[in-house]
Write a structure and sequence with these properties.
CATH topology: Rossmann fold
Shape: globular
Helix content: 25-40%
CATH superfamily: Thiamin diphosphate (ThDP)-binding fold, Pyr/PP domains
Organism: Pontibacter aydingkolensis
InterPro entries: THDP-binding, Transketolase_N
Distance between the termini: 28 Å
Pfam families: Transketolase_N
Strand content: 5-15%
Keywords: Thiamine pyrophosphate
Number of helices: 10
Structural class: alpha/beta
Cofactor: thiamine diphosphate
């Protein structure tokens, strides 16, 4: 069971709070990656407050519960905020983001024992392979839980992603739900300018995957996509959601531009962003 199982209206309010956390975290240390974090907030909130079955009594082996792996680890602010808001650790710890001796480093790591993190990530292209290994382990253990993994579309330029895609289909790893954040942006510009990805849906289908598409900035379309993805597991094919998002979603001056990939807002920009991210009852750390 999901320990929260929130309504769509509740999810929207949580998402606004998470977005407030994101801009405040990166502003406080003048570093971090707000753009992709803001764009993927609704995905993370959906997973942890509606979709996944898990316990906040964190166990590294994750037996009997769904697992999540973040491949594009630089969007750690959204994951840290979501984990804290879901009850894995104290929300106040978000104030230590990217500081010396903090458990909340710029890219997620495991050596400090941060609850919810099972593998260090951020070296792009590796997350899908990790998720497939975990999914196969669950099959060997007769564990019917699912494994989720998020990747950026820019990192699909890495060859390891396609090796993993072939591997998953060949071995019929049908207990994994992978998602690509198809925001069309990467650190140096648009994906069309840097390395055109073409028709990703057709490519993964050609590799033997069952592929769905969804608007990642709308709970009304994202949640049904997750439901359909779950129903599609167990049928001999790995499952992929092509998720369209807008980088910087929720903050108008950040939206749609790669320039906010790894730039923190200044004092004035922070206040403008917070004004746009209204919540019913703000609970800023």
């Amino acid at each position: 069971m999901n320990p929260h199982n929130k309504s769509i209206e509740e999810l929207k309010d949580i998402a606004s709070q998470v977005r407030r956390d994101i801009v405040r975290m990166v502003h406080a240390v003048n570093s971090g990656h707000p753009g992709g974090s803001l764009g993927c907030t609704d995905y993370f909130v959906s997973l942890y407050f509606k979709v996944m079955n898990y316990s906040t009594d964190f166990k590294m082996d994750g037996k009997g519960e769904d697992l999540f792996f973040l491949s594009n680890g630089h969007i750690s602010p959204v994951w840290y905020s979501t984990l804290a808001r879901a009850g894995f650790f104290d929300v106040k710890e978000l104030a230590t983001f990217r500081k010396i001796d903090s458990r909340l480093q710029g890219h997620p790591a495991t050596e400090e024992g941060l609850e919810g993190i099972r593998v260090a990530s951020g070296s792009l292209g590796q997350g899908l392979s990790v998720a497939l290994g975990a999914a196969q382990t669950k099959k060997l253990n007769n564990d019917n839980s699912l494994v989720y993994v998020l990747m950026g579309d820019g990192e699909v330029e890495e060859g390891q992603v396609w090796e993993a895609a072939m591997y998953a289909a060949h071995h019929k790893i049908d207990n994994v739900i992978a998602t690509i954040d198809r925001n069309g942006q990467q650190i140096d510009g648009s994906t069309n300018e840097v390395m055109s990805l073409g028709d990703l849906k057709a490519k993964f289908e050609a590799f033997g995957w069952h592929v769905l598409e969804a608007n990642g900035n709308s709970f009304e379309t994202l949640l049904p996509a997750f439901d359909e993805a779950k129903k599609s597991t167990g049928h001999g094919k790995p499952v992929m959601i092509m998720m369209d998002t807008e980088m910087g979603y929720g903050v108008d001056f950040m939206m749609g531009s790669h320039k906010w990939h790894g730039v923190a807002p200044n004092d004035e920009q922070l206040q403008i962003a917070l004004q746009q991210l209204a919540v019913q009852v703000a609970s800023d750390y």
